[in-house]
Amino acid sequence: MWKRERSERGNWLEQLTPAIVILGFIILLIGIAIKYARPQPKWIWGAVTGIGAALLIGILIARFDAV
Fold first, then answer.
1. Model pTM?
2. Number of folded domains in the chain?
């Protein structure tokens, strides 16, 4: 039973991985664009870029953990 639940979770994660990676890259690019668009407080682009990077790193860790 435990193996079946884990494999279902892995399949669900595999299906969503490309979408989450693309979303992470888009958020990273938005963060960089905010930085160069006009002077803003550093925490705004830092937060957006951090969220994008966290998504990418998190999905990679979850992907290798599910294997």
1. 0.51
2. 1
